Amino acid sequence: MSAINTLIQNDRVHLYTDAAAYLPDGEIQAILPKVRMLPHINAAMAMRGPFLGLAPIAEVLSLAGSFDDLKANIVSVLQNCADQFEHLLGQCSLGSDFEVVIAGLSETTGPSAYLVASHDRYGEPWAIIDLIGFSATPANADVHGRIQNIANGRGVDGLDPVADGLAIMQAQRESRFEDIVGVGGFAQLTTIDANGVHSRIIHRWPDRIGGKVAA
After folding, report:
1. Helical H runs in 40-196?
2. Cα Rg for the chain, rounded, in angstroms?
3. Contact status, residue 151 vs residue 23, Cβ threshold 8 Å
4. Over the stretch 61-71, which tens digit does the pLDDT of each residue have?
5. pTM > 0.90
């Protein structure tokens, strides 16, 4: 399962993504970015699910006029995307369900992140789930325990976005979800602050297309 993590700090928000797209048996099909920039509204989006749907869904979301407008309309927009791009989403061997995470600067509340999913893994489908502090998906009891050890009592503003963020992604990589190690390719950090949207690769794993993630 792909990693999509968020770290909301006092004046900025960080979005973490990995890059491995894989088949049901865990074989890596592609290594590619799973995040798209929305710099005109000081935001970025990441998607878990059929990677063929990422580009067209990102294009639709880029039509938003502001961060707050996007949040106000995102549920209906994504539902329309599910119908409009059904032919693309349906080509995924793991199913057509997807989830989108939006991170950025709200015009009214500041640094913010939230998730919308087409499935019921997190509760009711097509509902906005606000993310607070540090949020990691996927996660299990082991990953949560390692996050606590990494944080070592520090609040979110005391975390190092690169060192601590990567350590948490490594913990996710070393865990199995649905019997697959799916966090791989590279770790990408996207930061949104008052100066704009900035993205960079902070680590590359030795994964290869046609192989499996070697945790």
Report:
1. 54-61, 67-84, 86-89, 141-151, 163-173
2. 16
3. no
4. 999 999 999 99
5. yes
